[in-house]
């Protein structure tokens, strides 16, 4: 049972007080880019029920930290924004060439 938690888009930190050895199952999507640590040591992130994330924890109080490091980040993020930047630059250049750099008379 989580005692406290903090979450950011790429990180989740839980304070867990486990009454017995068992599995901590988080009901959000598992992906192979998730990395975990329990009390600062590395821990394996398993898929639970084909969809969720699970970690084995021993009895007692633990700090569980999960961090996602997506494959290809930030290169894929830059690639996804590049068409928008290209359209904006192209539109600006087209406007400058159309009006010759001067404002149209009203």
Number of E strands:
8
Name the helix and strand elements from N-terminus to C-terminus, one letter apiece: EEEEEEEEH
Q: What is the alpha-carbon Rg in Å?
A: 24 Å
User: Which word captures the global form?
Assistant: rod-shaped
Q: Compute the number of helices.
A: 1
* Cross-sheet strand order for the largest sheet: 1-2-8-4-5
Number of domains: 2
Helix content: 10-25%
Portion of residues in beta strands equals over 45%
The pLDDT mean sits at 86
Q: What can be said about the biggest beta sheet?
A: 5 strands, antiparallel
Task: State the low-pLDDT regions, or none.
Answer: none
What topology does this entry show?
Layout: E1 2-8, E2 11-18, E3 22-29, E4 34-38, E5 41-43, E6 46-48, E7 52-57, E8 60-68, H1 75-99
Antiparallel strand pairs: 1-2, 2-8, 3-7, 4-5, 4-8, 6-7
Task: Give a structural overview.
This protein has one helix spanning 75-99, and strands at 2-8, 11-18, 22-29, 34-38, 41-43, 46-48, 52-57, 60-68. By secondary structure, it is of the alpha+beta class. The protein has 2 domains: 2-68; 73-99. The strands form 2 sheets. Strands 1-2-8-4-5 form a 5-stranded antiparallel beta sheet, with no helix packed on it. Strands 3-7-6 form a 3-stranded antiparallel beta sheet, with no helix packed on it.
């Amino acid at each position: 049972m989580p005692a406290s938690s903090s979450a950011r888009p790429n990180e989740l930190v839980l304070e867990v007080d486990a009454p017995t050895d068992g599995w901590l199952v988080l009901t959000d999507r598992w992906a192979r880019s998730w990395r975990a640590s329990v009390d600062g040591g590395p821990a394996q992130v398993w898929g639970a029920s084909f969809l969720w994330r699970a970690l084995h924890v021993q009895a007692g109080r633990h700090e569980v930290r999960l961090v996602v490091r997506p494959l290809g980040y930030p290169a894929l993020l830059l690639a996804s924004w590049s068409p928008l930047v290209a359209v904006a630059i192209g539109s600006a250049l087209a406007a400058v060439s159309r009006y010759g750099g001067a404002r149209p008379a009203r």
